[in-house]
Amino acid sequence: MFREEAQLQRGTTPTTTTWFARAHIDPPLLAGVLLLCAFGLFVLYSATGQSSARTMSQAVRLGVALVAMITLAQIPPRVYRRWAWVGYALGLALLLVVLVAGVSGKGAQRWVYIGFRFQPSEIMKIAVPMASAAYLYTRSLPPNLMSLVGLVAIILPPVLLIARQPDLGTAILIGASGAIVVLLAGLRLRVIIAIGAVIGAALPLIWQQLRDYQRQRVLTMLDPQSDPLGAGYNIIQSKIAIGSGGLFGKGWTNGTQGQLEYLPERSTDFIFAVIGEEFGLLGVMTLMLLYLFVVGRGLYIASQAPDSFSRLLAGSLTLTFFVYVLVNTAMVTGLLPVVGVPLPLISYGGTSMVTLLGAFGILMSIQTHKRLLPR
Amino acid sequence: MANLQAIRDTVAEQRIFLGRLFVAVIFVLFASGVVVARLTQLQVIEHEHYADLSQGNRIRIEAAPPTRGLILDRNGNVLAQNLPAYQLEMIPEQVDDIDAALDALIDAGLVNGDYRDEIRDRIRRSTSFNPVTLAERLDDAAIAKFARLRPFFRGIDIRARLVRDYPHGDLAAHVIGYVGRLSAQDLDRVDTTNYAGTAQIGKTGIELTYEDVLHGTVGHNEVVTTAEGRAHSYTPRAEPEPGRNVYLTLDLELQRVAESELKGQRGAIVAIDPTNGEILAMASAPTFDPNEFARGMGTNAFAALQADLDRPLFNRAISGRYPPGSTIKPILGYGALVSGRTTATRVTHCEGHFSLPGSTHRYRDWKPEGHGIVDLSEAIAQSCDVYFYELAQDMDIDLMHDFLVQFGLGATLGIEIPGEKAGIVPSRAWKRQSFRRRADQVWFPGETVIASIGQGYMLATPLQLAHATAAIAMRGQRARPHLTLRDEDQLTGATFEYEKSLLPAVGHADEHAWVHIVEAMQDVLRSVRSSAFAAGRGAKYDIAGKSGTAQVFSVAQEVEYDELELDERLKDHALFVAFAPVEAPRIAVAVIIENGSSGSSVAAPIARALTDSWLNR
After folding, report:
1. How far is A96 from chain B (nearest CA, A)?
2. Which residues make beta-bridge pairs with B217?
3. Are B266 and B287 in contact (CB under 8 A)?
4. Which of A73, B107, B252, B305 has the fewest Cβ atoms within 10 Å of its own Cβ atom?
């Protein structure tokens, strides 16, 4: 406890520390996030074909998301713990609404219109790990079989609902965020192995449940050249973009793959390829280091958290963030199938930005409310 | 309760958690390592491979169409040229809602609403990544207007292109022809590689016949393209070789006179230089504006042109077949003289009608009261029909045929542009071949009678009449009529002269007979007893000619012929042929005014206007 505070004060002057602490802001996390977002805007201008309008609108969203982050940082973790089930129930209800009366976009029902277009699955990105952590907070750890059943009951319904939209990518990531809570809680190794075996056995069944385009994506990842102008086109073009970038890249706004629109979804899911093309290995390495810094800080906050709810939540949010980065970069470089996951904090898009910075706000809350907690 | 639990488990839980967190850190580092390794593989090890691919991706070889050769008159006046034009194009696959975009463009006045269905049809038929033209030849105002609207029209843009232009509009339209959009049928008959970038191709006239000369050879550009196929920048690889300029025999000034004389009427004029067969003017009325075709005419407009009762697209000068009427009398007179079937002194008493022996059927003279006693010279000058009715009995149809074909009638003359008709010079053999039923194959004496005044089966084109007149002017020497002089390299100016060719001369070269006939034709324009006297008055040169009036509608026996009561389209065609100067001919003209009634009073002054224009310079 004291050791942590001393560490926090070592790098910064006492006055600022006090100010940031009072404002419930974690300076290293804020710095990392702001650097990532600034880099994101810089790249986005190029990736939108030098569209000031779209870059500006993203900057505005970023501003809204930062406000959300600061706001969520003010709320003490115990409030989150007590109200976790409300957010979870609300999200689940909205998912059911989407299923019945959702707005379709690009062949999938993911949106619900409540004053503005809104994707309820975004709520679940925070609500599922929060509800899982809150549930485990009431149970003894490591989780026993009963706890496991309870967790499955929390995690599975939203995952199945989202998979039905169909949005397989998000479903898997939300499932992962819940699973991470379980793993961090100390699920015994033999149970993990058993569950892994069950999932392995279930894979052929899942394959049968997949839609045609979802199967196609998996097959395409295995052999992109099999359909160079169809499903394989994205991967081929993105590999060309990254590979042709070389060590130092072609320069900002000079990437032919991105600027001439050979690269599909260049400002959203495939923006990482634009970075690879225009800034080279140097650029993507810089970006990876920034991500690792943010993830490292998040894991540090988790390790310093005072109770199991905060620990599990902070750990899960941080690792889920890393999984996003991993899945996107692996997809764009052709290591994973195309699952439609944006590159966090960089890709063009609204709701995911708010969700991501909201998660960082909760991390900041966990970090800055410790000494106020009753012991 | 919850807090108690937390206190109870806190040490053990934190230990487990930190253990798990350690595993997570290992996982994060390992996974990041895999991604970095993959990036290194792509960007360092396989960099050159992907750099090549990205280069090949965006560079495409695109055809650079050659500039089409000009068409000029004999003095170098431009008759067909190329002008830069801005056109509005749509790439269908880039447009979300094509109908809405079209409607918006029509509302903005940028696209003609009449062509909406047609444009929609073209979009449906074209491949979605190829541009479809929505509007051609945008003016400055339209370009400015679109510049403001451009952000709202994704996939629609303005492109500069060379478009064929005919600066004199409808002048000589039937000779020059026009270009139109390259169609699927066109692609079957041309080298598709050479036409890869070409949008327009010659459809009729010189534009069609000299397509190979005018078109040129395609070049190639290296084009940097976007994934959507839109050009980003150009680098020339092989310059296109422009088409050659083609010089016509036409004289712009004379052509203008011919067309102004025809204005408002249906008819044709052909003027030839008798010495070499160069066609100085070729006009057909009514006419059309070839620019409408080059700019892309709607199917409705084209259908209207085709449905027009006056047939403006029809080149009467070479495709129009008319009974030559009395214009063939000098030829028959020459034939009768050289074959000894008549003499210069033989006379006939014309009472205004003629009957075959043993028949009561009367063949009327155009002059009901008759011409009195006439010889060959007077019969030509006054156009006495009865003299030729009798002469025909002595010559017979087959001999008449033999002379007429020697002057180029009844067969095509081989003019460069398509559509030339052969016409008909009847004979016994011709009738046997032309009719299926045996009863129809018999030649009747009465048919010989009307053939002597160029009626009945006989048909000739204005071109043939001008050519035959040129043959008379040249005392039997014949040059093949033609429309083109030479072509010229657009860049170096090097020319290639086209060969002129002669046609077989008229046989029985008899100087006395020529003099006699030509003098009779001079009398047509100078004798006070000739109806064409007015047309010849005041000429500064010696002019010879012959009128003709061709019946469109045969008047039944015993019915008074009253021109005024006839429907306009049933009136006689008015014809006149002429050449001048008599001693050293420089121009031969044939004029036909459909339903013009009188050759000497309607067609003759027109012929005179042409000889004046050409000779009084």
Report:
1. 31
2. B241
3. no
4. B107
Beta strands B78-90 and B156-165 are antiparallel
**What digits encode the pLDDT tens for the residues A30-63?**
999 999 999 999 999 998 888 888 899 999 999 9
User: Is B227's CB within 8 Å of A137's CB?
Assistant: no
User: Is the distance from CB of A297 to CB of B6 less than 8 angstroms?
Assistant: no
- Contact between A235 and B46 (Cβ < 8 Å): no
Helix, strand, or coil (residue B588):
strand
Indicate the residue type of A117. R
B36 touches chain A (CB under 8 A): yes
- Residue B216: which H helix or E strand, with range? strand B216-217
Q: Is the pTM of this model over 0.95?
A: no
In angstroms, the CA B422 to CA B408 distance is: 9
Give the residue among B610, B542, B548 at the shortest CA–CA distance from B330.
B548
User: Which range, of A107-116, B39-48, B165-174, B380-389, averages the lowest pLDDT?
Assistant: A107-116
Averaged confidence pLDDT in chain B: 87
Contacts of B216 (CB under 8 A, 6+ apart): B66, B67, B68, B69, B240, B241, B242, B243, B244
Alpha helices in B228-281 (DSSP H): 252-262
**B42–A242 C-beta distance less than 8 A:** yes
DSSP state for residue B558 in the 8-state scheme: T
Pairing of strands B219-225, B231-238: antiparallel
d(CA A309, CA A295): 19
CA–CA distance, B318 with B337 (Å, rounded to integer) = 30
- Name the residues of B annotated as catalytic: 326
- Rounded Cα distance, A220 and A358, in Å: 35
pLDDT of residue A13: 45
**For the CA atoms of chain A, what is the radius of gyration?**
21
Whole-number pLDDT of residue B565: 52
Give percent above pLDDT 90 in chain B.
56
Instruction: Using the Cα atoms of residue B398, residue B399, residue B401 and residue B402 in order, give the sign of their dihedral.
Output: positive
- B contact test, residue of A79, A140, A184, A373 with most B CBs within 10 A: A184
Condensed to tens digits (0 to 9), the pLDDT of residues A169-223 reads 788 889 999 999 999 988 888 888 888 898 888 888 878 877 777 777 777 666 6
User: Which of B14, B28, B48, B233 to mutate to probe the A interface, most A CBs <10 Å?
Assistant: B28
> What tens digit of pLDDT does each residue of A252-299 get?
888 878 887 778 888 888 999 999 999 999 999 999 999 999 999 999
Instruction: Give yes or no for residue B384 having a pLDDT over 80.
Output: yes
Residue corresponding to tokens 């309607």: B602
Cα angle value B480/B484/B488 (rounded, 5°): 145
- Whether the per-residue pLDDT at B69 is higher than 60: the answer is yes
Q: Give the tens place of pLDDT for each residue, B465-482.
A: 999 999 999 999 999 999
Rounded to the nearest 5 percent, the helix, strand and coil shares of chain B are 40, 20, 35
CA A185 to the chain's CA centroid = 20
Question: Can you count the helices (H) and strands (E) in chain B?
Answer: 22, 25
Contact B371, B378 (CB under 8 A): yes
Residue B533, number of CB atoms within 10 A of its CB: 17
Question: How many CB atoms are located within 10 Å of the residue A52 CB?
Answer: 9
Sign of the alpha-carbon dihedral angle for B558, B563, B569, B573 = positive
